[in-house]
């Protein structure tokens, strides 16, 4: 009998899985997700630290590799081992580590990953259960494989930028550039799909006993995530126009941002459904704004001049939003069934009772800081507790070198000699 | 495929998912499972409000045949809602590889049939409004009595447990609520640009697939099922980058920064206008060496050789001026030509590709076979967006177990009720007459 409760959450579903993570920021998120499902992630870093330690913001004024908040956020629960994977002296150690590993995750620029792959092909030949997953900007083949990319460039080539940004000017010409939504979404998408692919490979291994090679392309991952852009083009020849804080569309639609009494932008709109029209009237009544919705005169107007009726409703909506604080409008709108929300800053959620009740943030101790920090920690719960489990801060560089290598059977002498390399 | 015969095998061979989800999040999750070989049985009913809304949302496949291997030109307004159930282009792209059946859950016999199907299913997915499944007596607690191994996943905007469990939301609401809308755009006082689509109708789908596959593996090993209360806004928190952690350290409100890169000393870093109508190129200069290469490519203009731009710190400090002058250069350039020239010099640069660019000319997508041609029983063969990774032994195949794009409404009733559920032809026809299937 297993020790998993039948109600158990998934936070330990990959317990006993070991992942070796080698590479740059393209791999951080994928490994973080599997770590959240209980896998042990061993991050192998060069002596001067993984590249993701150089990405800010930093906790201190200097760019100290131990103070990167990017690294902290994307490396919870992981262990850090310092080892120069490009040095021949590391091969026996990597082989020993791979013998007990389930997955090797190789990320980075094409040249780097391609250079490192032959070793893993050889190792996988001796351990056919091994899953080797690469994440590169464009994938391992194709004419773009060696192009230089950053998050911005991937968001451009992958098509997300073309549908994100601001309304055109009145003459229809865009005077602002397309926008790449901030915070590394090309890495997020590449990481999520890598996690999907690795979960599939894990399932396949259970059926067949065989591992495999996975080649994730960040370019393609971004491409999958543009919603109706591709179907609209393929089936109608139309290209979407980007618009301020609302869906891109074949032609420019009605602007919908309004501001609350305390100066917060609200996402508040109306669908053409009768139910929502009535709800707006209720909301206006609640906040004491006079209106003619529901009167015979307005019903008549709706019949005779739909545009004028829509303008009236939108003006009323703006007045309602302007009349109270964002928080109050949010609660009142939701109570009448309108799917409105303030456009919150991410940190506004830290003290929200809903996320507190769900355990959405993981509280992680940082002994060196003498405090704990809260990190986004899950995407789902089992009704009681979160489905991902994060309990440990990101590792210091090499924090677990001795522990991990000793466990893999590497002698103290060898460990000492590797340190000198 | 027999076990051990791995080549071209399916990762989710033998897995059956009962899929009650609509719109995007749930269907995205089950789309990925279908592409790894799971039998995904999508349930709808024939009444308008019980049919997936995106079945009759534009764009629609045109009346005429698709031009030889190409795209169709001009909007097809379709045939009214009823005539369009099976012509929705976006639905076709979102639901390939699935079986489609009709089942009336408002009918007691319909609910009995669902219970019967749950008995030998691995998972059930739904995104009804809170409480609907319980009203039908089909909630997790009920279904696990029938099948203790069942994995039950519900997707909602804010989650089914918690203070706001009754709040209504869809992708854009969850984006605004979680902080993602705020993060995207030019610095204040400009308003947020947000997202031009429901990002949180997609990413949570990927997460749904990850969790379902983790649960399926565990189910296979231990027999354990589970309940997954999937929240789109929680997914938004996961995707808010470092902002939440940074705020706790600095106490400052999160700021927007457009296309710039405050987290590294990279500059210039942005989208710059090119020749033509709304044409742009993204350029990221990551080192002094690349900056010097860019100067050379520009023909060494006087302004670029100015001392203030020589160092990364200087470029950062004078970023406004730098952007303006760089744009003067780029706006005279053809976008792909410029991209190629910059890339040849080792500079990260890429065209801001529109859908037409990605479909018609992206040589990388073409070479990797990203778009997959799949037949649909009503509208013919169209390109479907593929899976962004190659797996050597159990490749993803968006055509899934059915080998086609999305199902027509009720297309697979005979196969599913006959072959999988085991109803006789007589049983099926009387159930159809009674308005059950």
Description:
- The complex is a heterodimer of chains A (421) and B (437).
- In chain A, strands 3-2-1-4-5-6 form a six-stranded parallel sheet, with helices on both faces. Chain A has a three-stranded antiparallel sheet with strand order 9-10-11, covered by helices on one side. In chain A, strands 7-8 form a two-stranded antiparallel sheet.
- Residues 1-6 of chain A have low confidence and may be disordered.
- Chain A has helices at 25-36, 69-74, 91-99, 110-126, 151-157, 185-208, 218-223, 229-236, 274-286, 296-304, 306-323, 326-335, 353-358, 401-407, 412-420; strands at 18-22, 40-45, 79-82, 103-107, 131-136, 213-217, 241-243, 246-249, 257-259, 265-267, 341-342, 361-366, 371-376, 380-381.
- With 421 residues, chain A is α/β, with parallel strands linked by helices.
- Chain A has 15 helices and 14 strands.
- The longest helix of chain A has 24 residues, at 185-208.
- In chain A, helix 1 crosses helix 6.
- Chain B is α/β, with parallel strands linked by helices.
- Chain B has helices at residues 25-35, 80-84, 89-94, 108-119, 132-135, 140-146, 171-178, 180-183, 203-222, 232-238, 243-250, 288-297, 312-317, 319-330, 335-344, 355-360, 363-367, 413-420, 425-433; strands at 16-20, 39-44, 99-102, 123-126, 151-156, 226-231, 269-273, 280-284, 348-351, 371-376, 380-385, 389-391.
- In chain B, the strands form three sheets. A six-stranded parallel sheet of chain B has the order 3-2-1-4-5-6. Chain B has a three-stranded antiparallel sheet with strand order 7-8-9, with helices on one face. Chain B has a two-stranded antiparallel ribbon with strand order 10-11.
- In chain B, strand 10 (371-376) and strand 11 form a beta hairpin.
- In chain B, helix 1 crosses helix 9 (203-222) and helix 7 (171-178) crosses helix 10 (232-238).
- Residues 1-6 of chain B have low confidence and may be disordered.
- The interface between A and B is large, with 154 and 167 residues.
- Strand 6 (213-217) of chain A pairs antiparallel with strand 12 of chain B, so a sheet runs across the interface.
